[in-house]
Write a structure and sequence with these properties.
The chain has about 220 residues and is of the alpha+beta class. It has a domain of about 100 residues: OB fold (Dihydrolipoamide Acetyltransferase, E2P). It contains five helices and six strands. Strands 1, 2, 3, 4, 5 and 6 form a six-stranded mixed beta sheet that branches.
């Protein structure tokens, strides 16, 4: 019985040894031809939109130096709108309109010239020393009658209209000398003259009565 088992075991052992030797001899004398490697295509990884945005934000936060070319490139500027210039004639007219009207100086001491030729003084302001004759009530104020005694005791009369400057009860005395400023609107001594200011000088004529000139 033991002999039979030993024989079977020897047979199996020899079989295994033969198989192992066969593989060894085959790999040594008949090596297997290597098969060509097949290319494998791997799909590139694409980050989701949220991750891509976060990655761009992280990159923008990192300090870095821009290339010299980018730093030297000037920022694009919008083209300037060409300025439309006015014609010389129009510019001159606009300058004249913008310039304030120059106020003419008040003419003083022109009594003799005014009463000899009042038309020359139309549109001018004058200031004269005149003697009071009468102050008559008129709308909207008073109408003053004044007199100027020129060389050779020549007498000339001037009528000046007050537009409310004197008030209701002016203190004006007959024969007293007043410094009268008025605007000559018509170039006439008897009309078109508007009172601008009046003040007593303290002087008076020889014939002055001192009575009120208000009628």
């Amino acid at each position: 019985m033991n002999f039979f088992r030993l024989r079977v075991l020897n047979t199996l052992l020899l079989f295994l040894i033969g198989v192992v030797l066969g593989f060894i001899l085959k790999e040594k004398f008949y090596p297997a031809v290597p098969t060509a490697a097949k290319p494998a295509y791997v799909q590139p990884y694409t980050a989701p939109p949220a991750a891509a945005a976060a990655q761009e934000e992280d990159l923008s936060d990192e300090p870095y130096l821009a290339p010299d070319e980018d730093r030297a490139r000037p920022a694009a500027e919008e083209p300037a709108t060409p300025r439309q210039e006015s014609p010389p004639e129009q510019a001159l007219i606009e300058a004249e309109e913008e310039k304030p009207a120059r106020k003419q100086a008040v003419l003083k001491g022109e009594e003799a010239a005014f009463f000899s030729e009042p038309g020359r003084f139309e549109g001018r302001d004058l200031e004269m020393d005149l003697q009071m004759i009468t102050a008559r009530k008129a709308r909207p104020g008073w109408r003053l009658n004044l007199v100027y005694t020129g060389p050779g005791k020549k007498i000339d009369y001037l009528y000046v209209d007050d537009a409310g400057l004197l008030g209701d009860k002016p203190d004006l005395r007959i024969g007293f000398v007043y410094k009268v400023r008025f605007y000559c609107g018509k170039g006439q001594a008897d009309s078109g003259n508007t009172l601008a200011a009046i003040a007593p000088t303290g002087a008076k004529a020889d014939w002055a009565t001192g009575l009120s000139a208000v009628e």
